[in-house]
Design goal:
This protein is an alpha/beta fold. It is about 40% helix and about 15% strand. It binds pyridoxal-5'-phosphate (PLP). Pyridoxal-5'-phosphate binds next to helix 3. Keywords: Pyridoxal phosphate.
Length: about 375
């Protein structure tokens, strides 16, 4: 009997316009295929250093401790929370969708007493509301907030927030998974102490890494910890030796070599395009899509909409699942359904990185006119 062979891997190519991943350009896929090196090979160390510098450039920060966590965006969230929270700490979290809720869960798992402030899904927080919460919970050690809430499409303004948080002696932690590489994001200027993102959203790299950055203020807090970080894998006091070269490039875990190549290439593309041009492109594509969707009867849910994630309420009589499934099967276009309270009531259309093109916007709108 011949042994059965596994058929070759040959997935159909899709236009990825959901909440992530976004379409990965061929140039990044080619970078993935470069020869695998050892994680202590001087050639690779150089590539890693370049990658960390590119992350700094994209985040607009000089923070030394800036590196790609081996894991997706959620691992970045865990890294930030686990390193900054000790059992018994108090923390404040702003919840206006799924990801703020996950931050709270993470903080609680690390032993914090969490004070959540909430606004309805789709809305954002005013600095006044945050100042009130900070005043009410003066013992909190940190405040966590989501810059781009992918579950609702809401775009949180972060300007002026750090002063409120720092004046109260707290650290500011930000989820930038759907904003890095798509929206303005100035880590140093905005006084952010800890931030994480993901590769598969506006960087258009495959999923698997989470670029993070910690300020000096955050590092001081970590140095003063009385307890060990609850996560061995994500403990930055050990990781920093490898990623920054401080105290020698000691082995902690094997860096995901080829994913680092892909991230380096994706960030090189971001810098080549120019941060400002890239942000302007996302905005332009958002406005184009918005005009077309509104003409078709969709309405935007958040008042302050992201450009990178368009969360729209469905017009009456639209069959959510049937239409999304026709878009996928007939047009190879993936868009996202509503999450949580918006399940069945909204769509989430991503315009992230390489997916944010005129061609994709025109194709999606034409397909929608056909299937509706
Ligand atoms: C996608 C996303 C995450 C989680 O990232 P994963 O890569 O799925 O682990 C966290 N926060 C926000 C705002 C996201 O959009």
């Amino acid at each position: 009997m011949p042994t059965p062979s596994t058929p070759p891997l040959n997935p159909r190519e899709r236009i990825l316009m959901g909440p992530g991943p976004s379409t990965v350009p061929a140039r990044i896929l080619r970078a993935l295929a470069a020869p695998t090196l050892g994680h202590l090979d001087p050639q690779f160390i150089e590539i890693m250093d370049e990658t960390c510098q590119l992350i700094r450039d994209a985040y607009q920060t000089k923070n030394l401790l800036t590196f790609p966590v081996s894991g997706t965006g959620m691992a970045g969230m865990e890294a930030v929370v686990a390193n900054l929270i000790e059992p018994g700490d108090e923390a404040i979290v702003c919840i206006n969708g799924v990801f703020g809720g996950r931050m709270k869960d993470n903080m609680e798992r690390c032993g914090a007493t969490v004070h959540a402030i909430e606004v309805p899904w789709g809305e954002t927080f005013s600095n006044e509301a945050i100042a009130k919460a900070v005043e009410k919970h003066p013992n909190a050690k940190m405040l966590g907030i989501v810059h781009a809430e992918t579950s609702t499409g809401a775009h949180q303004d972060l300007s002026g927030l750090a002063e409120i948080v720092h004046d109260a002696g707290m650290l500011l932690a930000v989820d930038a998974v759907t904003s890095l590489g798509g929206h303005e994001l100035k880590v140093d200027q905005w006084g952010i102490d800890a931030i994480y993102s993901g590769t598969q959203k506006c960087l258009s790299c495959p999923p698997g890494l989470s670029p993070v950055s910690f300020s000096e203020r955050a590092l001081e807090r970590i140095d003063q910890r009385k307890t060990k970080v609850q996560s061995w894998y994500l403990d930055v006091s050990m990781l920093k030796n490898y990623y920054t070269g401080s105290g020698g490039r000691a082995y902690h875990h094997t860096a995901p070599i080829n994913m680092i190549y892909a991230l380096r290439e994706s960030l090189a593309i971001v810098i080549e395009e120019g941060l400002e041009n890239r942000i302007a492109r996302h905005r332009e594509m958002h406005l184009l899509l918005r005009k077309g969707l509104e003409e078709l009867g969709f309405s935007y849910i958040p008042k302050r909409s992201l450009c990178t994630l368009n969360c729209v309420a469905l017009p009456d009589g639209i069959d959510d699942a049937a239409i999304r499934s026709r878009l996928l099967s007939e047009y190879d276009i993936e868009i996202g359904g509503g999450l949580g309270v918006f399940a069945g009531k909204a769509w989430r259309i991503g315009l992230m990185g390489h997916s944010a093109t005129k061609r994709n916007v025109a194709t999606l709108l034409a397909a929608l006119r056909d299937v509706m």
